[in-house]
TrEMBL record:
Residue ranges constituting the Gfo/Idh/MocA-like oxidoreductase N-terminal domain according to the UniProt record: 2-111
Name by which UniProt lists this protein: Oxidoreductase
Domain GFO/IDH/MocA-like oxidoreductase: 129-238
PANTHER family membership: D-GLUCOSIDE 3-DEHYDROGENASE (PTHR43249:SF1), UDP-N-ACETYL-2-AMINO-2-DEOXY-D-GLUCURONATE OXIDASE (PTHR43249)
Length: 348
């Protein structure tokens, strides 16, 4: 059995991670829960049948020696916690954003050895996107030409009452990093490597340091051009992806997860068909199954660096007003170490 620990027992742990682990009960067991709030950890353990509770990650690692740790903590804790787990020999499956910067992400990667780390990007694992990738690879939809990637969500002022939200230091960024990253990751999963980004961002409504809306234009290596919108100011919430290919338009409309019913295809030619062989919703449950397969086979999971590089480039382009090309943000670039480029006030 794969001995698993959950660190951070807030909403995402109970709603997504615990059910995903229950679905893998034939090969994984939760041996410990960790939270700085002892009462919350105790309540989580009682609800999910977890035998050991801790308020300190290092103590848990030393006493329980887990094989795998699920990190469900606030973003500013991820890098230190991931490195601690990896150095102790535990694999890591980390909630988004895995890190607050490319520097932190590369620090996690550098700590890998026998133990490896992966990012939670569950939308890659639904049958809809798998079918779309297969159809594009088979050539039945034609080549990708145009895309739209929209994360139009709503977060009110009370949402930002949580102390770590809305700041560069502890949340790392606004909806571009913390919300839209899932849709952008899915877009990259379909379209491949990006080449150039131009962007704008602003703080229009919320009393935060970071942006509350951003918009970008992305050119891909294959020539496709995409528009990207990330917002926490949208009363009618929707996650929307549209791919216009030479022979069809494929659209996905959902909010926090999709099934086959959320996909539509508009065909230009008879060969452009849409018949997924199964209906697997996007979910932590779907991704964890794949992650544990990789764990058992010793296959390196994906930390999502191309997605984080796109997010970083979007911030740099928006803040500097200049286009950013893939690969230009290296260790000497101020945006490598923080998404605001070290500038305390960028959105006024």
């Amino acid at each position: 059995m794969i001995r698993t620990a959950i660190v951070g027992t807030g909403g995402i742990a109970g709603i997504c991670h615990a059910p995903a682990l229950r679905a893998q009960a034939h090969r994984a067991v939760i041996v410990a829960a960790v939270d700085v709030d002892a009462a919350r950890a105790e309540a989580f353990a009682a609800e999910h049948g977890v035998p050991a509770v801790y308020t300190d990650l290092h103590t848990m690692i030393r006493e329980q020696r887990p094989d795998l740790v699920h990190l469900c903590t606030p973003p500013y804790l991820h890098a230190d916690q991931a490195v601690a787990c990896l150095e102790a020999g535990a694999w890591v499956w980390c909630e988004k954003p895995v890190a607050l910067s490319l520097a932190e992400l590369d620090r996690i990667h550098a700590a890998e050895g026998p133990a490896l780390a992966g990012a939670v990007f569950q939308h890659r694992y639904g049958s809809g996107v798998r079918h779309l990738r297969d159809r594009i690879a088979a050539g039945t939809l034609g080549r990708p030409l145009v895309a739209q990637c929209v994360t139009a969500w709503y977060r009110d002022d009370a949402y930002y009452d949580v102390p770590w939200r809305g700041t560069w230091r502890s949340e790392g960024g606004g909806p571009t990093l913390g919300h839209g990253i899932h849709q952008m990751d899915l877009m990259l999963d379909v379209l491949g490597e990006w080449a150039e980004v131009r962007a704008m961002a602003g703080r229009l409504e919320r009393d935060v340091q970071t942006e509350d809306v951003s918009a970008a234009l992305v050119r891909f290596e294959n020539g496709a051009i995409a528009t990207v919108v990330n917002s926490v100011l949208s009363p009618r919430e929707e996650s929307y992806l549209r791919f216009d290919l030479a022979d069809a338009t494929v659209e996905l409309r959902h909010l926090y997860g999709y099934s086959n019913a959320d996909w539509t295809l508009t065909a230009r030619t008879p060969r452009a068909t849409w018949e997924p062989p199964d209906d697997l919703p996007s979910s932590h449950t779907a991704q964890l199954a794949d992650f544990l397969d990789g764990y058992e086979a010793g296959i390196r999971p994906d930390l999502g660096r191309p997605t984080m590089e796109l997010v970083t480039a979007l911030y740099k382009a928006a803040i500097t007003g200049l286009p950013v090309r893939r690969g230009e943000i290296d260790a000497a670039d101020p945006f490598y170490g923080s998404l605001n480029g070290g500038r305390p006030e960028v959105f006024r």
